Amino acid sequence: MGEDSVVFGGKIALAGAVLIFINVLILSMNSAPIILSSYQVSSVSQLITPPQDADLWARIAFGNRMVVNSGLMALWIIFAGLCLLGAVILYSKPVNPLYPSLAVLIFSLLSIFTGGGFILGMVLGVLGATIALQWRKPWRETFFIRMLRSMKFDSEMFSSVKNSIEDNVNAAFTVVAANFLGMFGASLYIFNVNLILSPESPEDPVKILLLGETAFDFQTLATPFAHIGIGIFKWLLITSLFYLFGTKILGRKAEFDSVARVTAYAYSPRILMIFLPLIFTNQPFLTYDWPVFALSVTRLWIFFALIVAARAVFEISLGRAFGITLLASGIYWIIMYNIVAKHVEIPGIMFTIGPEFALLMLVSLAALLALLLGVFKRE
């Protein structure tokens, strides 16, 4: 069982390390970041003030220009080689996978400065290393694989988490990671859009759009750090509502920590917002609508994951699980955004439904649907 996790993690890590090594070699040969765009433009003005009939332009960049031009590319090639060596050792089933796993994890994360193996390599490297680090578990029960399974609405995964008391820490870490990384991606994207539309220097739009840079400032960390505490509060709130409706109204047996674990993993899709700053576009698409759209998609994704989680933890039909999720989400929205948000300034992207009677009507409709789906029928 342990060997399977190491071998499987080694395979994934090896694929990621190969991509990282190739990415660094291309950067070294080109002496410039790899920039892929929809079509060539001669100036940044074509992107910020394009003609009305302009087509959508988008670019994605791999590698940091300052790192590539630092004269230290030989060092980054060594790092990529060490990552590849660690992955090869993992693949060969070492007696103790701890050190090669840590090497792959560290050098995969560092590769973000040189393009991250076209991003996919870094993701695979981190995923493979963390699987191998948990070699005592079957690979399907490792942390990031569970997050991926929750995104696929895997009811079997939610059922296993429900009965796994030792997963309380992993559940809390899921909420922390999803909220911090997701909001960091949104904050970094918005920071760069501000520099493009309201530049501090005329070179800022050129650097970001044409030269492939992603500007960073430590102020972009304020919102994601704030959302760690906000995310934990939201998690405990939605968990309490699910526990109340499931056990006290529906009459199903479930422990509070079991409900907390399954709702935590339902937050996994939010971590995907970390990839928001990878792509920048031209006007009129270069707006704040992109993170708002991404947040809307992840929230809908989380809603469907919560339905599967409710079905697994309370062992009820899909219809009742939908009813509980709908009702709990409605009450959650009232508490979070029409009560808490009025007294506490919540940084980041906020959704509001107004006027208030419209929200109350929606919650009333949710309660009616929940009634028809049998949520209030006690067992």
Structure, briefly:
Helices cover 65% and strands 3% of the residues. The chain has 15 helices and three strands.
Structure description:
With 379 residues, this protein is mainly alpha-helical. It has a domain at 153-372. The protein is built from 15 helices and three strands. The protein has helices at residues 2-30, 45-48, 65-68, 73-91, 98-110, 120-133, 143-151, 155-162, 168-197, 203-210, 222-249, 256-265, 289-314, 318-343, 356-372; strands at 34-37, 58-62, 279-281. Strands 1-2-3 form a three-stranded antiparallel beta sheet. It is flat and about 70 Å long. The model has no long low-confidence stretch (mean pLDDT 88).
Strand content: under 5%
Helix coverage percent: 55-70%
Which whole number gives the mean pLDDT? 88
Sequence of secondary-structure elements: HEHEHHHHHHHHHHEHHH
- List unreliable stretches of 5+ residues: none
Number of strands: 3
Structural class: mainly alpha
Distance between the termini: 40 Å
Tell the overall outline.
flat
Task: Give the neighbour order of strands across the main sheet.
Answer: 1-2-3
Helix-strand blueprint:
Elements: H1 2-30, E1 34-37, H2 45-48, E2 58-62, H3 65-68, H4 73-91, H5 98-110, H6 120-133, H7 143-151, H8 155-162, H9 168-197, H10 203-210, H11 222-249, H12 256-265, E3 279-281, H13 289-314, H14 318-343, H15 356-372
Antiparallel strand pairs: 1-2, 2-3
